[in-house]
Amino acid sequence: MRRLIAAASLVLAATMFAPAAQADMMIDEARNAVSAFIRGVAGGADGVAPLLAPEFQIQRANGVAYDRDGYIGKGVGTVHAAPDFALENVVATGDDDIMVVRYLLVIDETIDGQSVAKSAPRLTVFRKIDGQWKVVSHANFAKLG
After folding, report:
1. Where in 25-97 does DSSP place strands (E)?
2. What's the pLDDT tens digit per position in 93-123?
3. In the chain, what are the domain boundaries?
4. What one-character DSSP code corresponds to residue 145?
5. Whole-model pTM above 0.70?
6. CA of 135: how far to CAs of 1, 16, 20, 90, 128, in Å?
7. Quick one: CATH architecture of 2-140?
């Protein structure tokens, strides 16, 4: 009887703590994917192109939007950012091949020659393609000017 109770306790503990461990793993994966995207953007068109899914779209707070080709061709060239940044308040949801990440990005950057709010919310959606996270969409809520 004690063995049965001990086994049941282990199963219960495993099911209670597994979601928390999975959530922590997803946050780590989200931080890595977002960080790669930010570094890719800082690297220009050649840096960001391999990270974008074919259906990629971006929307900025000032109303400017691009699809994948437009962003690679023009949009990414308008962003100039310091190499140092921080991610705060990272929240990630998703399943095996979709991940939605909301976060605050703290960075010194300009877009179209205008300074951007140093800390602003962002929302980035990723899809796993051939085992790699690709950016499907990105919303930048940073105010310009």
Report:
1. 52-60, 65-67, 79-94
2. 999 999 999 999 999 888 888 888 889 999 9
3. 2-140
4. -
5. yes
6. 53, 32, 25, 16, 9
7. Roll (3.10)
